[in-house]
Amino acid sequence: MKKSFFLKTGLACLFVINYGVSASAQTKALSEAMAATVMDIWQDSLTLDPENPKPVKWAYDQGVILEGIEAIWKRTKSDAYFKYMQKSMDFFVSTEGGISRYKQTDYNIDNVKNGRTLLSLYKTTGQKKYFKAATLLWDQLQKQPRTQEGGFWHKKIYPHQMWLDGLYMGEPFYAEYAALIKDGKAYDDIANQFIYMEKNARDTKTGLLYHGWDESKQERWANKTTGVSPNFWARAMGWYGMALVDVLEYFPEHHPKREALLNILDRLSIAIGKYQDTNSGLWYDILDQPERAGNYKEASASCMFVYTISKGVRKGYLERKYFKIAKHGFQGIQKEFIEDGAKPGQINLKGTVSVSGLGGKPYRDGSYAYYISEKVITNDPKGVGAFLLAASEMEIAPKNL
Hints:
Strand order of the largest sheet: 1-2
Largest sheet: 2 strands, antiparallel
CATH topology: Glycosyltransferase
Shape: globular
Distance between the termini: 19 Å
Number of helices: 15
Structural class: mainly alpha
Number of domains: 1
Number of strands: 6
Order of helices and strands: HHHHHHHEHHEHHHHEEEHEH
Radius of gyration: 20 Å
Oligomer: single chain
CATH class: Mainly Alpha
């Protein structure tokens, strides 16, 4: 029991002390203090932008938050967290298993993200409506348009394009659903998505991956020779890293392509460590240009890298030596981005870029000027969700790390 108590509270307290959070917030683990903010400002989880409150469509932002909440629920066993997840999904899921505000024929891989929460609800409650709803998302993946070699398009409106973001939106759900229904054929396809993305988007000099790749090389943002976008956006690589460690959790131990995924994760982790700011432990929005005017340390990516490394080490996918990257990063996150929330026992997360993409209307050209022009806000759901996941991982990290 003493060991369990330490894992649940000792490390959390260790990482809070002296980083600008009041005594009221220190009485609970940081993940729980952030969850208290989430469940207060987004009480129904349907108004993800506190400055512009309105019900959201079926959106991946919510799924990131709910996975963070789920991590705390699994650790604490508190029904309040599970009820929050269930209420959030029940807004969309009908008794027959339909999903309101979701359109499969958009073939938007972002829309697959929330399927993992549906699977958790199904596994816990046994209610068929959650499995039926998840099956709609599985069916989308079976029909999702692909590149010539078999990579999922990011969206139907972005033909011939793979984005790093899409690996997180689709592949962890794909792997978890495949494990549930025992579809062994799916794993080749899942592994290939990471293999294709790395092959087409990785820069061999830096080890970093470009945000997007256009097979057709027709987009204005695409390099006419390689098809890659112009810059290394930190959160995109964060999505990719989180996708790898989450997929590996469900990937068969003896599958011939598991080793390829582990090698990709190792190469990615080396690059993450290489571009970590030595002083702060954080990462810049554009990873390889920390000193360029306008660049800044970005919260969501920093949280995602901490989660990726910490979980990778805990699960044995990465060597223990990498944990120092996560530890330094998490200390920096607390010092730079965490502040007291509006109420006792709550915290806020500053410093998350609200959005960054490629193409679309108005057109996003992938330039440095474009990335640094996007708004940076406090308590952005993507950053908050990533922090919940990162904090939860650090709070259960083995003592000897």
